[in-house]
Design brief:
Radius of gyration: 23 Å
CATH topology of the largest domain: Jelly Rolls
Strand content: 35-45%
Number of strands: 15
Number of domains: 2
Distance between the termini: 60 Å
Largest sheet: 8 strands, antiparallel
Structural class: alpha+beta
Number of helices: 1
């Protein structure tokens, strides 16, 4: 009797182990597929540009600094426009431009641009953007040319919060940047690869003190010459928002 019970227990254990061997790879594949799907860049809404859909608004006309001003940084160089591109030359510290228009979005929006490090060893794109009545900055290439992340979340800057990443950038190469701001989330993509996905509900969001002059919307470089083009913004539709805030 005891032997039969032992054999049955062993048989059941064997069946359970076999079932796990079958199920675990499937679960891993589902998880991997979900992670890949989440890492994909946000496609523009299918109705964007169509009647009733969200239109992209260009923030730079390619010719003038209309609705922009030089950011009042100490030791700044003078921004200029060359062949439809904004050039932010390396200054003693920071050089930048700040948006002066009143038609920018504060929440549930997307910003796109292309950025290039022309030369230098620090951040070539410090994009300060509105988050409701506050603001934050997306940093690309800081601290020796590789640091990326959001400044600041709960007082922690791009080097001191969960968004910190180290990326090796090439000079004179254009990088596509996408940024989304929602009620409970800030997400960003670099060349269609997920860069940032930070939950922000209940958190303190602000910029570093050096970037105050860039608020609410601006772009800056630090001791580095950067180039910016194809800068635009649009409102997100309800079906594009993350489920947790619907």
């Amino acid at each position: 009797m005891l032997r039969r019970m032992v054999r049955q227990a062993v048989h059941v254990s064997f069946l359970l182990a076999a079932a796990l061997l079958v199920l675990l790879p499937a679960c891993d594949k589902e998880k991997e597929a979900a992670e890949k799907a989440d890492a994909k860049p946000p496609a523009a809404a299918a109705s964007a540009g169509k009647a009733g859909g969200p239109e992209w608004k260009s923030l730079f006309d390619g010719k003038t600094f209309a609705n922009w001003k030089e950011t009042d940084f100490g030791g700044k160089a003078k921004p200029r426009i060359e062949n439809g591109t904004i050039i932010l030359p390396a200054g003693n510290m920071m050089t930048g431009i700040t948006y002066t228009g009143s038609d920018y979005l504060k929440m549930n929006y997307e910003i796109e641009l292309e950025a290039q490090r022309v030369e230098g060893g620090d951040f070539f794109c410090g994009l300060t953007f509105p988050v409701g009545d506050s603001a934050a900055s997306l940093i690309l290439g800081g601290w020796g040319g590789t640091l990326c992340g959001i400044s600041c979340l709960d007082g922690g800057d791009a080097a001191n919060n969960e968004t910190t990443k180290m990326i090796t950038f090439e000079d004179k190469r254009w990088y596509k940047v996408q940024l989304r701001v929602e009620e409970s989330r800030i997400a960003a993509w670099l060349d269609d690869e997920k860069l940032v996905d930070a939950k922000t509900k209940g958190r303190k969001i602000d910029v570093r003190i050096e970037m105050e002059s860039s608020k609410p919307l601006g772009i800056a470089t630090y001791s580095t010459t950067g180039a910016i083009r194809n800068l635009r913004m649009r409102k997100l539709q309800a079906d594009e928002l993350t489920k947790e805030q619907e």
